[in-house]
Amino acid sequence: MVKTDLRVTKTKRAIQQAALSLLLKKPINKITITELAQLALINKGTFYLHYADIYALYDDLLATAAQQTVQASNAYPLLFQDSEAFVREFLFAESPELPPTQQALLKPENLRFAPTFPKVLLEIFKQAIYDVGVLTPNRQNDLKLTFLLNGMISLLVNPTLIDRDDPSCIDFTVHFISRNIEQTFPEFYAGK
Predict the structure, then answer these.
(1) What is the reported pTM?
(2) What local confidence, expressed as pLDDT, does residue 38 receive?
């Protein structure tokens, strides 16, 4: 096991907190390394020991926020037990209001500087499903999960496709996706 120096951990945390504080005030492309370093109480050279540039820091902040959000959900075991419950939890569960720093991270003017974020988010979701311990990580299951999750994530990103005030629209969506899950993973649903 590799031990990380406590000073490195504290410095990275100071850099991240300074960036989040600045993101509340301005978009990522308007934040300079100089002002970030001043706020984090480090020099610019120290910043570059941890991140290639401001956008690498932003990618790290996004991935950390996504990881925390995904891990907070209890939906993933449901994928192998009750497909409809999984879809309802994944797509329609009430989520708590995001803290202001996460709202700032997800602003469109910032997200445009993170073109790989959808792929990172997909990998985080897939890992959360694999972490349940029921599905073997392999190429076939990666393909199945990628197909299902991309469709579901697109519904989260483009909420206009579902009228959340129309129970029949929600029921159709849940039924449609859950049937796809059951057909994709018949080994879990064959006897149901």
Answers:
(1) 0.85
(2) 97
